[in-house]
Amino acid sequence: MGLRVLDAVELPIRYEANIAEVRRSARSLAQSRGFDSFATAALTTAASELARNVWVHGGGGSAVVEDLSDGQRSGVRMTFRDSGPGMSQADLERALAGGFSTARSLGLGLSGTRRLVDEFAVDTRPGEGTVVVITKWTRF
Amino acid sequence: MPHDASQFSVDERELQSRRAFFELTDDDLRRLAALRPFAERHLDDITEAFYELLLGHLETRRFFPDEATVRRVKAMQRQYFLGLFDGRCDLAYAQNRLRVGAAHERIGMAPKWYIGAYRRYLGLILDRVFEEVGDPAEARAAYQSVQKLVAFDMSLALDSYIDANLQTLGRHQAAIRELSTPVIRVHDQVLLLPLIGTIDSQRAEQVMEAVLMRITEEKAEVIIIDIAGVPVVDTEVADHLLKTTAAVRLLGARTILTGITAQVARTIIQLGVDISAMPTRARLADGIELALSIVGKTIAPKAV
Amino acid sequence: MGGPIPILKVGPNLLTTIHVELTDSIAEVFQQDVLRAIERTGAGGLVIDISVLEEVDTYVARVLADTGRMAALMGTRSVLVGMRPEVAATLVRMGYGMEGVETALDVDRGIARLASPRGDR
Question: What ipTM does the predicted assembly reach?
């Protein structure tokens, strides 16, 4: 059986309070799908990081939370979209390598976030905003 | 009442969405309510015929080990059947149907059996509806309504079965994790983890999680991790150990690494791994002494 | 005291329990409250209890570490206590070890730690 999307919810990220909403949505879905406490914490922290990036650096955007199934495991996929400044390829590579050290720079937390999830993809271009897609599966 | 493993539940929005997709309208419910007398008339023969199938098939018979079970389940089945003709499909109804799936998961009855059983139900009802309801158009409409509600019920039962199944597996995973990472309490506030065998990333994760949970549960100040039983200590293993040590520190406890053989000592330095942040010892016994001194204890000979 | 996070004086130390989401505005007020409390009481130690927090992302981790550093500038030693296993595992997986921040298992151990000289461990 292939990948199936059982449900999807779109949440706006316009105000700081929305970050907590995104986190809560991820937490409630993960828990209901049998993720253990460590996996849940990893997912919700990743969601928090990325939602915050959207709010702080992206000028706002949205998060789509999807309930996945591959026939054997449950998964949660989250897509974070913003129409902010975007990043150049060089900046993106540096961010993913964990190169940024200044506290407020865009991309801080991206390399760390990647280690919390099973699948991680970034699509970004200067002036065209950023899309980050993360997926975490229950362990089998 | 046995613990209901499934946490799957529906809210009003989900209920309406599901009803819409199954095209289960208020008209259908009214039609079903109107069939109540029919249902009561055929309650006995349908129930008996239904169980003929389950008891007549070798693999499903084992779910009914004795007469008492058969009687109990038949009584529940009769309630279920009549419930189809109550003329309602609200949250309470849905919750009730969800319990069916959870119950089946609990006794280990696979979906194929109860999907087959639902099929039998529909077959039995179809025959009798067409016998009794004179007008073919009406009979067809009545059967359609039954079929919709039965399919709806089945979808709920399956969802909660799957969910309960995942919960059970999650618990098994936790149990397996416990067994393969035996953390021992050697003294008040001192834990010991003898690592045996190869440590791949998955195992390393499990080890770290088990260690962190135990430290929190026991309020341990020190954990001794003995690696004498780990055949290969390379950069990856060293990295896992460092991560675990960092996490233990965040909790507020300390790690002592013991079982460092001559070979391992050479490898670690040659690889350039820096584990100077944590105390290390060659022998477990030395590690235990150090751990005890950290918690303010010492091993002394008994006074003669 | 401006914000929702309480700061109590316990003997020679200050104790604060973070029980709400740390947003930008709350974090700012929290730090101000802590530093003003240090000014007012001259407390030698600060215990920050995060046992209620189910997750801590890099933003919150930074706020906590910064608070400790600010307190240190004023001569107050701080200890972070009660971190949950899931939180510790997640931070470490991200590569965030919060080195330089002292930690203890709970409030009692935190207070005991502040009573013993630094570098004892």
Answer: 0.94
